[in-house]
């Protein structure tokens, strides 16, 4: 196990970095292989704005 400093990497060890890289690449590959239709950016943003607005008006 090779330790790394925060200047070299955000990961503590090279093994942690390799594990994250493998996980991230698998997520990207799965996303690219997903046959469902994409959601337009404007639609996603409108939905998020509605969620945020609803939370702001809801009493805590």
Secondary-structure blueprint of this entry?
Layout: H1 14-33, H2 41-57
Question: Could you please describe the fold and organization of this structure?
Answer:
It is a single chain. With 60 residues, the protein is mostly helical. The chain has one domain (14-57). 62% of the residues lie in helices and 0% in strands. It contains two helices and no strands. The protein has helices spanning 14-33, 41-57. The model has no long low-confidence stretch (mean pLDDT 90). It holds the Pfam family PaaA2. This is Stability determinant. Residues 15-47 form the Stability determinant domain.
Brief description of this entry?
This protein is an all-alpha fold and 60 residues long. 62% of the residues lie in helices and 0% in strands. It is flat.
Quickly count the helices: 2
- Strand portion: under 5%
Instruction: Identify the quaternary structure here.
Output: single chain
Q: Biggest sheet: strands, sense, closure? A: none
Structural class: mainly alpha
- Quote the average pLDDT: 90
Low-pLDDT windows of residues? none
- Please compute the radius of gyration using only Cα atoms: 19 Å
Q: Portion of residues in helices?
A: 55-70%
**N-end to C-end Cα span:** 47 Å
What count of structural domains? 1
What sequence of helices (H) and strands (E) makes up the elements? Answer: HH
Domain Stability determinant: 15-47
InterPro entries: PaaA2_dom
Pfam family, one: PaaA2
Protein name: Stability determinant
